[in-house]
């Protein structure tokens, strides 16, 4: 009997085909961070039970909260991932990044991305906002929902 193998690398490449990623450093808790983003920038990110990313490491299970928002008039989905949980990282190569903002769908123009980054830098407790290159992320498959 032949074994069927899921090609996680190909799945991740397809997922990131139309995606833009920002890294953010902010010491706030995930729910407070999302509250700040929603309040100060007018988004409506929500946590949905069952959308967290579960990873097994060192014999333990770690749960990384994920928050989502879809723009009604555009084909754009916004996803904010929590990168740290109980001393472990969703993306270990980005240990100094607390949150990841993924924009997927209709590619936003450079002006919108610059404006978003400028406004994010004004959020209370925000220390750093930087664009991330999808090519430099080793564990992309951890972000695939």
Pick out its properties:
145 residues, alpha+beta, 6-stranded antiparallel sheet, two-stranded antiparallel ribbon, 3 helices, globular
Could you give a short description of this structure?
The chain is built from 3 helices and 10 strands; from the N terminus they run αβαββββββββαβ.
User: Which consecutive residue ranges, at least 5 long each, have pLDDT under 50?
Assistant: none
Oligomeric form: single chain
Can you count the helices?
3
Q: How many structural domains does the protein architecture include?
A: 1
Globular, elongated, flat, extended or rod-shaped: what is the shape? globular
Number of strands: 10
Could you tell me how far the N terminus lies from the C terminus, measured between alpha carbons in angstroms? 30 Å
Can you list the strand order of the major beta sheet? 2-5-6-9-1-10
The pLDDT mean sits at: 86
Whole-number radius of gyration?
15 Å
Helical residues, percent: 10-25%
The description of the largest β-sheet is: 6 strands, antiparallel
What are the SSEs and their pairings?
Layout: H1 8-15, E1 19-25, H2 30-41, E2 46-47, E3 53-57, E4 60-64, E5 66-70, E6 76-82, E7 84-85, E8 88-89, E9 99-105, H3 110-121, E10 128-132
Antiparallel strand pairs: 1-9, 1-10, 2-5, 3-4, 5-6, 6-9, 7-8
Your description of this structure?
The chain has one domain (17-143). Helices cover 22% and strands 32% of the residues. The protein contains 3 helices and 10 strands. It has a 6-stranded antiparallel beta sheet with strand order 2-5-6-9-1-10, covered by helices on one side. A two-stranded antiparallel sheet has the order 3-4. A two-stranded antiparallel ribbon has the order 7-8. The two termini are 30 Å apart.
């Amino acid at each position: 009997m032949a074994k069927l193998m899921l090609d996680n690398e190909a799945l991740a490449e397809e997922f990131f085909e139309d995606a833009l990623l920002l890294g953010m450093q902010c010491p706030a808790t995930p729910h407070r961070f999302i509250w700040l983003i929603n309040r100060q920038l007018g988004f409506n990110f929500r946590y949905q039970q069952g959308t967290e990313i579960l990873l097994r490491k060192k014999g333990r299970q770690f749960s990384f909260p994920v928050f989502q928002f879809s723009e009604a008039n555009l084909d754009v989905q916004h996803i904010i991932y929590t990168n740290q949980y109980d001393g472990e990282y969703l993306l270990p190569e980005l240990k100094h990044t607390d949150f990841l903002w993924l924009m997927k769908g209709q590619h936003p123009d450079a002006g919108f991305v610059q404006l978003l980054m400028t406004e994010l830098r004004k959020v209370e407790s925000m220390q750093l906002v930087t664009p991330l290159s999808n090519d430099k992320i080793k564990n992309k498959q951890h972000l695939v929902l």
